[in-house]
Amino acid sequence: MRTVVRSVAQWGLAIAMVAASTLVRANEPQAAEIKKPGQWDASAVYLWPGPTDIADAPQGPRIATVRSPDGKFALRVNENELAIDGPKGATVARKLDIDDLAEVSWGPDSREFAVTASDGGWVGTWAVTVYAVESTGVRKYDVSQPIAARFQARKGGCDEIPNVAAAGWLAPDVLLIVAEAPPHSSCKDMGAIRGYELSVRDGKIRREYNSSQLAANFGNRLGERLQGR
Description:
single chain; four-stranded antiparallel β-sheet
């Protein structure tokens, strides 16, 4: 009898352990929901679900939610679409297209966010777009063009389109942006970078930094891709 009781108790304990393990796994965040820091901006959220499938394509579905600092807005990324939810889950505007390789960061006033994305692969071409949430919807600012033009005016650079990426918000409407010479052999200054403070709404460049100044002033803000430059 004692053997039977002991066996029943052990069986019950095993069932409880399996149930607890299942509950823990159910509560674990899926790979796509784990918030990874940005590759360019350490405070951004890198929208990468996990291992690669083929080349630079994500393996499995990509689903992520990135909330604004004040908690009133949320960016919902589902595969290659980005939706903007306002208070009480109301949709602010139509869904936006977003590339596989991308990261997003909210401005400190929770009224604008930057999307840095590549339409190719890891090497590039990367570009940054800012969206401002307004009462009538969302206003789009293509901030890559003035940065790329300034970067291309440097001496000794290659003629290829540079990678342009957000590297962190410095204040509402003021974004730190980095331009990078594509890191491949056709550029004699491959991988060279410069930083720029940009007023988003008027498109004016307020300051420019070389790589040393960028590291000295904003080293803790820069993402993994920019570390050690």
